[in-house]
Specification:
Elements (H helix, E strand, L loop, with lengths): L9 H13 L8 E9 L5 E9 L7 E5 L2 E5 L1 E5 L2 E5 L5 E6 L6 E9 L2 E11 L18 E8 L5 E11 L2 E8 L2 E2 L3 E6 L2 E7 L4 E10 L2 E9 L3 E9 L24 E3 L5 E3 L9 E7 L4 H17 L4 E9 L4 H14 L6 E7 L5 H5 L11 E5 L5 E6 L8 H19 L2
Parallel strand pairs: 21-22, 22-23
Antiparallel strand pairs: 1-2, 1-9, 2-3, 3-4, 5-6, 6-7, 7-8, 8-9, 10-11, 10-18, 11-12, 12-13, 12-14, 14-15, 15-16, 16-17, 17-18, 19-20, 21-24, 24-25
Length: about 425
């Protein structure tokens, strides 16, 4: 470790001084554009864009994925390392800024047993994600695609991709039954596509060969530390995903839920409490580790504020990485603070990975398939619909459709006697 730092941000200030001199003054005046790279043990890399504030007295780092910008404002010095905490998720960067041309460190992500660690490099003044000088695209792939992913065990799963291409620039997302892969950003270079995203919880990269304007082949999808799948796609404007599970995915004669869990302050709250009687109740099954749950919570928080006085209540049930109650409370608290959640968020005490999570928490249901899952309960207390997944703002018109569905279905439930 360097001994140049004696107090505060002395070495940090020096590095910023060097960079500001070299960086064009008329480009993003307040931030330095950096190329960040997560290094996987298998040699595959997941790049993303990070903007770093030029003001060392008010350090702010911004993770940028297309239209998404995630601000990291909690940045502290630990020895000669800068530690940056994400506003949501159990996630943080540790970076040693000892060289102007490359900052080295690690990305720490919450896991079942503490934190998982991946090597991280940040390259200041590199304003590209994959290639500085990509080749002229051979094809334009804007549109909707039917995608087939193939797992390591040769089983397959279906998804839908939506891409938007302008010259070399490519953005888009993949939709699957649990939601979407959020904001993907990248390029088309020659006959190749490259996309990636990083949000503090999930790190994804996609590479593939564009065989024609109707076919994509030889794809590789990398997620996190080691997961990878191959993929192919065929252009299809009518591509669709499998539908929701049965409307009432509850056991026979078990349409009325019965649960009680503590909130962040430790108060026990039950679906049978007076405050939920004769109300339409939306039950949100989530995890503070889940980006799609983050998108749903952002929507649900505003939805609740607008509809509470109409007789609507919301309860969030959190399934976390571990059964450590204090750890779970801290993580869920970040969710509550970030999105100004006014409805109760309850700690189930059961992990998302627990194969018996349904039986231990909501035995009336047949199976909790994915996170997020939303349960709609009518004024009589009966489960009326179970909806899996959430299409977030990265999906454009699908996000609008999702919002319309929530509003319209709740209106129906409110009108029921």
């Amino acid at each position: 470790m360097s001994k140049c730092i004696k107090s505060g941000f002395v070495f940090f200030n020096f590095i910023f001084f060097l960079i500001v001199i070299a960086y064009p003054q008329d480009v993003k005046k307040n931030f330095i554009t950096c190329r960040a790279v997560i290094h996987r043990p298998d040699g595959n890399e997941i790049p993303f864009t990070m903007l770093v504030s030029r003001d060392p007295k008010k350090p702010v780092w911004v993770i940028s994925n297309g239209a998404e910008h995630i601000e990291l404002k909690s940045i502290k010095r630990l020895g000669d390392t800068l530690v940056a905490l994400f506003p949501v998720f159990e996630s943080q960067f540790h970076l040693s800024i000892q060289r102007q041309e490359e900052w080295e460190g690690f990305w720490y992500k919450g896991a079942a047993m503490g934190f998982a660690t991946q090597a991280l490099s940040v390259y200041p003044n590199q304003d590209f994600r994959f290639k500085a000088n990509p080749e002229k695209p051979h094809y334009t792939i804007t549109g909707r695609w039917a995608v087939t992913f193939t797992r390591a065990n040769n089983t397959t799963r279906s998804a839908v991709a939506e891409f938007s291409q302008s010259g070399n620039k490519l953005t888009g997302t993949f939709l699957n039954p649990s939601g979407d892969y959020r904001y993907l950003e990248g390029i088309v270079s020659g006959d190749s596509l490259m996309l990636s995203t990083f949000d503090g919880s999930h790190a994804y990269s996609f590479h593939a060969l564009i065989a024609s304007d109707q076919q994509i082949s030889s794809g590789l999808y990398c997620s996190g530390t080691a997961h990878k799948e191959s993929w192919t796609a065929v252009k299809n404007a009518d591509a669709k995903l499998p539908g929701d599970p049965p409307t009432l995915a509850v056991h026979e004669n078990a349409e009325y839920l019965n649960f009680s869990f503590p909130d962040i302050e430790g108060k026990m709250i039950s679906i049978r409490d007076k405050q939920f009687k004769d109300k339409v109740v939306i039950i949100q099954l989530l995890g503070s580790w889940c980006p799609n749950c983050m998108d749903e919570t952002a929507f649900m928080s505003e939805f609740y504020k607008k509809n509470k006085n109409r007789g609507v209540e919301v309860i969030g049930l959190a399934y976390e990485y571990s059964t450590d109650l204090e750890r779970s409370k801290k993580s869920v608290q970040k969710f509550r603070d970030r999105f100004d959640v006014k409805y109760p968020l309850l700690i189930t005490g059961v992990t998302a990975a627990d194969s018996l999570r349904t039986e231990k928490t909501l035995p009336q249901l047949k199976k909790i398939e994915n996170f997020p899952t939303t349960i709609f309960v009518d004024k009589s207390g009966r489960v009326r619909k179970i909806h899996t997944g959430f299409n977030g703002p990265a999906t454009g018109e699908h996000y609008d459709e999702q919002k319309n569905f929530f509003n319209e279905f709740v209106d129906v439930l409110l009108k029921d006697l």
